[in-house]
TrEMBL record:
Keywords: Chaperone, Isomerase, Nucleus, Rotamase. It catalyses: [protein]-peptidylproline (omega=180) = [protein]-peptidylproline (omega=0). Its EC number is 5.2.1.8. It holds the Pfam family Pro_isomerase. SUPFAM superfamilies: Cyclophilin-like. GO terms for molecular function: peptidyl-prolyl cis-trans isomerase activity. This is Peptidyl-prolyl cis-trans isomerase. One of its GO terms (biological process) is protein folding. One of its GO terms (cellular component) is catalytic step 2 spliceosome. The keyword Isomerase applies. PPIases accelerate the folding of proteins. It catalyzes the cis-trans isomerization of proline imidic peptide bonds in oligopeptides. Belongs to the cyclophilin-type PPIase family. Its main location: nucleus.
């Protein structure tokens, strides 16, 4: 007899991001990534992401947004600076649709930018904080 293992945790909230291509339903994992979820939700509530664009789109890899300057170098968190990474053993970049913090390429450099994956991205494990998924 085979066993089925659920790797992803249950979701505990949802944000709907309205885009020019329609809504994105994002389910959140606040237990596994509390700082990242709190930051994302608060910035959404404050209208921080209103009228921003997805400034980085790479076919088969990711779609990135959350930078009000649209340069890839802007953005700030609700914490008054960057915040620490939150890695969880059950969360891996093993399929498309995962939502994570974009960072500056160094540990603990998360701010307002986020991305969602378009495919499996194993090399991002333990480099970017996963905090939700596109439903």
């Amino acid at each position: 007899m085979s066993s089925v293992y659920v790797l992803e945790p249950p979701t505990k909230g949802k944000v709907i991001v309205n885009t020019t291509y329609g809504p994105l339903d994002i389910e959140l994992w606040p237990k596994e990534a509390p700082k990242a979820v709190r930051n994302f939700v608060q910035l959404c509530l404050e209208g921080y992401y209103d009228n921003t664009i997805f400034h980085r789109i790479i076919k088969g890899f990711l779609v990135q947004g959350g930078d009000p300057t649209a340069t890839g170098f802007g953005g700030e968190s609700i914490y008054g600076g960057t915040f620490s990474d939150e890695f969880h053993s059950r969360l891996r970049f093993n399929h498309r649709g995962l939502v994570a913090c974009a960072n500056a390429g160094t540990p603990h450099s998360n701010s307002s930018q986020f991305f969602f994956t378009l495919d499996r991205c194993d090399w991002l494990d333990k480099k970017n904080t996963i905090f939700g998924k596109v439903k």
